[in-house]
Amino acid sequence: MASVDQEEGDAGREAGTDSQDRYDGAGSSSSSGSAKTAADGNRAGVGGMINPGRYGIERVAYWLMRLSGLGLLAYFIGHIYETSSILQGKMGWDEFLAITQTTEGHILLAIVIGMCVFHTVNGIRVMLGHGGVGVGRAARPDYPYIPASQNYRHKLGIYTAIVLAAIAMMYGLAVMFGV
Amino acid sequence: MATAILRESTIMKIHYGTALAAVALVAVHVLMRLTSGGFAASLEYETVLANYRFLPYALMLEIILVLLSIHGFNGLRVILLELRQGPRYEKAVSYGCLAAMFALIAYGSRTIIMTNMGMV
After folding, report:
1. pLDDT by residue (tens digit) across A70-93?
2. How far does A120 lie from chain B, in Å, by closest CA?
3. Is B32 helix (H, G, I), strand (E, B) or coil?
4. Residue B58 burial (C-beta neighbours within 10 Å; 0-12, 13-18, 19+)
5. Which range of residues forms the domain containing residue B15?
6. What is the pLDDT of residues A28-42, one digit of tens each?
7. Most C-beta atoms within 10 A of its C-beta, which of A19, A29, A89, B15?
8. The model's pTM
9. Dihedral over Cα of B115, A81, A111, B15: its sign
């Protein structure tokens, strides 16, 4: 459980405490433009949280998970508002539907499909990891202190989520454009 | 504050539970769009109205609404708490997300109930 926290729930703490820098050695924090030094109070802020440069695909998954989550929440709120137009009768429904049934609307919906699939698959990976699945055996932390959870199984899970999201987006576009 | 009532570990279990349940129900919701005579036909006014008036489907929509609202606004709360911490800030974020969640559920439920009861 702790090892997964190092992987998925990592960036919030890394942004706040810069704990990774202690492991990376002196001077490594200066390699990132957004990361600040210990003298700055170890607070890299939002820039440190979203910086994917130094932490590999796990950090990319971390911010993709949050971005897709925020995007899906925005879509969900919009969808609830959109469907409420049915209360205005057929005219109201058709008018609102016409706004969404455009090329831009279809592309936006394809992005939503991609976000939804990535968020789902990566979310299941995170849940499994929190349950101890695929994180490896507990072991003594030795240099270079690579978290056990950052292994090929979870990396494969992240890449699978990205590939499935891309496939779902293409399928969605094919359905919407009637290809 | 929500965290004073529920432990953070309990909230995360709810977060994961709502996610798994929503995945299953949203899959049914999406399949309904694809199997009701095609995507475009499934969005026609009469088809959508018939869907809302079919009680089991309306109940499923209500459950999806509740599940996704809980999951979505708790996710937003978690992201906002990662960005900044502090007693007043955390309280404001937790209560704000809770209020927004109830507002969205109320607004969505209004559509489902009014349409299902033939008030359109």
Report:
1. 999 999 999 999 999 999 999 999
2. 7
3. helix
4. middle
5. 2-116
6. 333 444 444 444 555
7. A29
8. 0.82
9. negative
The dihedral region occupied by A25, where left means phi > 0, alpha psi between -120 and 50, and beta the remainder, is left
All structural domains of chain A with their residue ranges: 2-176
> For A9, which DSSP code?
S
CA distance A61 to A118: 9
Q: Which of residues 54-113 of B touch A (CB under 8 A)?
A: 65, 68-69, 72-73, 75-76, 79, 82-83, 104, 107-108, 110-111
Chain B residues with CB under 8 Å of A116 CB are 26
A70 Cβ under 8 Å from any chain B Cβ: yes
| Fold of domain A2-176 | 3 helical TM bundles of succinate and fumarate reductases (1.20.1300)
Q: Which residue, chain included where needed, has tokens 């429904």?
A: A93
- ipTM attached to this prediction: 0.93
Residue A97 dihedral angles phi and psi, to the nearest 5°:
-65, -35
And the tokens for B22?
A: 């929503």
Q: Which residue in the block uniquely carries the two structure tokens 């695929």?
A: A134
Q: Round to whole Å and give the CA distance between B72 and A179.
A: 33
